[in-house]
Amino acid sequence: MHASFEKENLLPREDHNGKRHQRHHCKTPGGFLLAVVAAVYTLFTVSVVAGVIKPYAETVFREASSEGKTVLLDFHADWCPVCRKQGPLLEGLAQEEKLKDVVMLKVDYDNEKALKRQLRVSSQSTLVVFKGEKEVSRATGVTDKDKIRDLIEKGL
User: Is the pTM above the cut of 0.70?
Assistant: First the structure.
């Protein structure tokens, strides 16, 4: 830091156990406001966002389900060639006007073992669609965009 900045931003010394310390603070109220805006933005983007495929988070899934939204869970594995074909198709579908309000969550097939057990998912490239808290459709290994769209539309 520059010496002038440090000199302007020092608070009075405080004694702690016989030692003297100086505290620093920032005089810029904009710095605090910027931090608040960044925190709110982060919370918003992690919460339920439609039109974008987000990484699976249980809280996001529960929130969207409890609000009665259509939710697609994409059980994806990076090593899976079918999953790699589904990815761009799902990204394109997420941008379609009719499907823009569908909450799409990418589930890490290799790490979400409890969720796989709970939903009885035994293969990667499985797509599961919910309307609210009820499962309405499911398919495994589908790489046809129209068939995936039909699958998702069952939840609308």
Answer: no
Domains within the chain, CATH numbers bracketed: 3-11+18-45 (no CATH), 48-153 (3.40.30.10)
By the 10 Å C-beta count (0-12 exposed, 13-18 middle, 19+ buried), 93 is classed as buried
Question: Which is nearest to 131 in space by CA: 154, 115, 149, 151?
Answer: 154
- Checking if the pLDDT of 53 tops 50, the result is yes
Residue-level length of the chain: 156
At position 110, the amino acid (one-letter code) is: D
Q: Which spans in 81-144 are helix H?
A: 81-94, 113-119
Phi, psi of 130 (to 5 degrees): -120, 145
What's the pLDDT tens digit per position in 82-107? 999 999 999 999 999 999 889 999 99
Strands 70-76 and 53-55: unpaired
The answer to whether the CB of 55 falls within 8 A of the CB of 103 is no
